Amino acid sequence: MSRNVEIKAKVRNRDEIIRLARELTGKEPAVLQQQDVFYNSPEGRLKMRTVEEDEVARSELIWYDRPDIAGPKESKFYKLDVPQEISETLSVCLSEQESAVD
Asked: Which residue range is the domain that position 54 belongs to?
């Protein structure tokens, strides 16, 4: 099982953040389009994430557990790269809770 810490922050100067990212990585920023579809899960959260980058799409099935609190929070998760057919099958078999687009 993997773990990470989620921190959300407001950005007041987007151009400065992009400049710092370029300086730290030596690369241009990448634009990711994400769509999450959440499924009912008795424990934690289960979602199918579709990510599009440079006009190439991929799907990830992600289960995670994270407290519902403000501020930094640790998530424990499993993430699998899956073919699009798995996403379509889950949409038919499991009831969807909601969708989110980033």
From this structure: 2-101
Span 7-39, pLDDT tens digits: 988 999 999 999 999 999 999 888 889 999 999
- 17, containing H or E segment: helix 14-25
Residue 24's domain is classified under what CATH number? Answer: 2.40.320.10
> In total, how many domains does the chain have?
1
> CB–CB of 98/38 below 8 Å?
yes
Whole-Å CA distances, 41 to 64, 79, 97: 10, 15, 10
Rounded (10°) CA dihedral 89, 91, 95, 96: 150
What band does 76 get if pLDDT is binned at 50, 70 and 90? very high
